[in-house]
Amino acid sequence: MDNNEIEINKPKTNKKSKAKMMSLKIIPLGGLGEIGKNMTAFEYDNEIIVIDCGLAFPDEDLYGIDIVIPDVTYLIKNKDKVKGIFITHGHEDHIGGLPYILKQINIPVYGTKLSLGLIELKLKEHAILSDCTLNMVEPAETVNLDKFKIEYIRNNHSIPDSCSIALHTPVGVVVHSGDFKVDFTPIDGKVMDLQRYAQLGKKGVLLLMADSTNSLHKGYTMSEKTVGETLENLFSKATGRIIVSTFASNVHRLQQISNCAVKYGRKIAFSGRGMENVSEVARELGYLVIPEDMVISLDQIKNYPNDKLTIVTTGSQGESMAALTRIAASTHKYIQIFEDDMVIISATPIPGNEKAVSNVVNELIEKGANVIYKSIEEIHVSGHACEQELRLIQALLKPKFFIPVHGEYKHLITHAKIAQSMGIDKDNTFILENGDVLELTRNSGKITGKVPFGRVLVDGMGVGDIGNMVLRDRKNLAENGIITVVIAIDRRNKVIISGPDIVSRGFVYVRNSEELIDEVRNIVTDVVEKCLDKNITQWAEIKNGIRREVDNFVYMKMKRKPMILPVIVEI
Amino acid sequence: MDNNEIEINKPKTNKKSKAKMMSLKIIPLGGLGEIGKNMTAFEYDNEIIVIDCGLAFPDEDLYGIDIVIPDVTYLIKNKDKVKGIFITHGHEDHIGGLPYILKQINIPVYGTKLSLGLIELKLKEHAILSDCTLNMVEPAETVNLDKFKIEYIRNNHSIPDSCSIALHTPVGVVVHSGDFKVDFTPIDGKVMDLQRYAQLGKKGVLLLMADSTNSLHKGYTMSEKTVGETLENLFSKATGRIIVSTFASNVHRLQQISNCAVKYGRKIAFSGRGMENVSEVARELGYLVIPEDMVISLDQIKNYPNDKLTIVTTGSQGESMAALTRIAASTHKYIQIFEDDMVIISATPIPGNEKAVSNVVNELIEKGANVIYKSIEEIHVSGHACEQELRLIQALLKPKFFIPVHGEYKHLITHAKIAQSMGIDKDNTFILENGDVLELTRNSGKITGKVPFGRVLVDGMGVGDIGNMVLRDRKNLAENGIITVVIAIDRRNKVIISGPDIVSRGFVYVRNSEELIDEVRNIVTDVVEKCLDKNITQWAEIKNGIRREVDNFVYMKMKRKPMILPVIVEI
């Protein structure tokens, strides 16, 4: 029996060596293999912290769904361990899940001032603000927990107060870039803290997790300031009103638009609920600075001449209810398009929104506006790092391990290759999926398990109650409509007493299809009478027969497959 | 009484001067204010001819619709006048409406050899080929009718045998560009007939109608040949199979892919119904030339090593049933993705398809394929003229009047401005909408009326039977589902005999919502009993009550608005 074995038989004295062996678990719950709902859990021993808690907007196959949030079953199961959610910045895909998830599990939330301001808005709307704990962190500040120290490091992004996080853990330093770009001339003058990146790199970084959104794009992302130059050029030429549509949360952009407006003596009105809310919070907190007398409300615009007005509005994505869309469709309460309006769409369509944006552009042009959009002027820059910036942070941090995050598979794999070309070992690069458990020690990493993950669908007040079956039904209803067949049967005497009544929706325009409906009625009567004659009184069997026969008939006749819904009323 | 009045009172002798005064009517039935379903009617006296007869693919708000075709009510009303449909080239948005419209009104169809080959395929599928008259026209040939002479002029486009049309009319020459680009190094060596354009311009062109698709793009469209160079480079590097996805109708592209395959000793297999059909027709007619022994069928690919195979497939738009989509989803009968496959997507997503294509790319990469797509290599060029080419044909033709065609409003207006900057009078530029009747004389043009126009929806066998009401229902069903409420009432005794039965689809997963359904049942019972107590036996009134109360309850409870469908069975 040698010393080693003795050690093993003495668990009480084993504490130190066990701690040494413990690994850091990294569990992405969202944001991998997709754009949106970013959320990652880090677990060491009895401590879990979470970075970000975002939402995703539904794909078009998610009929009727409002938003999508991550599955946090794992956090709920381990709720005693979860010490905090650390928010990198205030975009929807990083904070939008909070109201739903804080209702399920009340965890302290940490973030910078503007992020918390935007989170407060949300929690107020959901009437849970007073139940939640929000802790402000300054860039360069560190939150000390038992196992984790969470250090905020300023970066640049399309919203002020955005940070990367250096997570100091017992196995080493993990840097999570958050969403970022490197802007050498940011609007607020606060360049990303590259020195701290370098310092961490010098000391040794175990793992980098970095934003992959723009990994397919070569070169550098342009500075936000370049948009200001284009804007100023446009403002100098406009003769009528200027209507600018952009993301409400892009406070830097709002600042640049406001600066131009002020310079050219134009009052500024904010339009759209998101724009009104964010501009108010940003002004209150000092992130958006506009002379008080230059801001007016929408109902005042009629008091000013056109060339003294700038309207800043939501709707840059062609969202059906957003202000710009309503302006284009002439359904906005305060704003109609005039002949000499200049409309600037200072954004790029998010994939999937191209057609909607194009429709809005066409409507605006048809109404006489001079519409300035991406194809015409460089009126938007991305908030995400391109290849050269991704290389820069690799060079500064020189991490041992690398996980590309925030992106679809094509973005992740391209980012992994970039990292490998900068010297990261292929075996030390992990392309994870949501729910993967990566266990990391000082020397090795391995996927060791899977936790519940996936998309939780929010529809109205319902969170997670819409499943695949309901979605499948909605898809079928959307494409083919429904035929409801109601028939009343006297079970004892085995006769039809009433019906069949045929009611359809989304199938055919009934007034032109009376003949067809009559035929369906006859088919149903036939099926039911045959069943009753054969003494079949299992309603399920009769219903199956109705479904089958009506389905066959309609498909043969029309090559369509409406949902068939038989209802038997038993008297 | 002066001479003029005498003339007016002598209609018989008025013939010549009346003919002099007669104007050419130009009536776009599709393709204006939209991309797709191109179709224009030209009318002079008792003669109508039509250029093109296309389809459009449905927008996402057209739930369940297969395709969209133009409204040809005007042609049907004037069918004795209609002498022919003249097809410029064989793309769906120029020929896809033919099978539907020829069923309604049998008109001779004219086109070049490949166009007719592709039209034959369609008419066979619809089993009407033998009823139709197809007339082949060679480029540079003219069809002489009574009032119109229709001259075919070769142009370049992303399909061989594409032509512009010079329409010689009593009021002057109208040039319709068709879809075109100017390719100085086309694959078939046949450069657009710019000399004929110049000659017509020299003699005098009354009106130009030209393709606006790419009017927002500066510069020139690259030659199809440049794609060949990129392809060859990729073929030289591939170690496994090469799978190329492109538009089946882009026979030039198929030729270039085949040339590369032959050069590198790879057999060629065509995958997807469209690809198989078009490649067969194109080979039969001599537009696609591949050595017989190099083409194999899909079931033979297993007999060849990977580096001796090229698969050419449909699905470049991520269409859900297309071959590449099925390959990516591992549901294709013959083709699974291997680790060393190179997949080349030689196309750009059509607006609206971006997300679907991106999903296919991600799935292919996840399965290990090396996917080459637009963001990575210049693997596609457009078939449409950019600004400089549009200027070139203006310079050659120097038309008096101009109508930009084939494009959304933003394309049309930009094209109009390009034409005006080339010297066309603003008053001589007409931005038309579908259905407009433009009357043109030698000296003036004027919109004088409107004919029926719009989108006729094709769903299965139904053409035009789906209207706005059905679409509105489908949208509502898609987003919210349906609750069917069935109740049997004894009218004489004014009591409920059975029900209410509540059946929902696409609303909630019923097993988790029993309580909710119970509440709905109680609400319905309440409403009905109250009505019956009050002697209300108007079913419509009771139904309205049910709808209102259930709607309110569900919205209050869930913030959702399912369709409520009450059915009362009267016993």
TrEMBL record, chains A, B:
It is found in: Cytoplasm. Its EC number is 3.1.-.-. One of its GO terms (biological process) is rRNA processing. One of its GO terms (cellular component) is cytoplasm. Zn(2+) binds at H89, H91, D93, H94, H157, D179, H406. It is an enzyme of class 3 (hydrolase). SMART domains: Lactamase_B. Residues 36-231 form the Metallo-beta-lactamase domain. Binds 2 Zn(2+) ions per subunit. It is not clear if Zn(2+) or Mg(2+) is physiologically important. Signal peptide: none annotated. The keyword rRNA processing applies. InterPro entries: Metallo-B-lactamas (IPR001279), RibonucZ/Hydroxyglut_hydro (IPR036866), RMMBL (IPR011108), RNase_J (IPR004613), RNase_J_2 (IPR042173), RNase_J_b_CASP (IPR055132), RNase_J_bac (IPR030854), RNase_J_C (IPR041636). Substrate binds at A248, S249, N250, H380, V381, S382, G383, H384. Its cofactor is Zn(2+); Ca(2+). Keywords: Calcium, Cytoplasm, Endonuclease, Exonuclease, Hydrolase, Metal-binding, Nuclease, RNA-binding, rRNA processing, Zinc. It comes from the Bacteria. The keyword Hydrolase applies. Ca(2+) binds at G64, D66, D459. GO terms for molecular function: 5'-3' RNA exonuclease activity; RNA binding; RNA endonuclease activity; zinc ion binding. An RNase that has 5'-3' exonuclease and possibly endonuclease activity. Involved in maturation of rRNA and in some organisms also mRNA maturation and/or decay. Homodimer, may be a subunit of the RNA degradosome. NCBIfam families: MG423. Belongs to the metallo-beta-lactamase superfamily. RNA-metabolizing metallo-beta-lactamase-like family. Bacterial RNase J subfamily. This is Ribonuclease J. It comes from Clostridium chromiireducens.
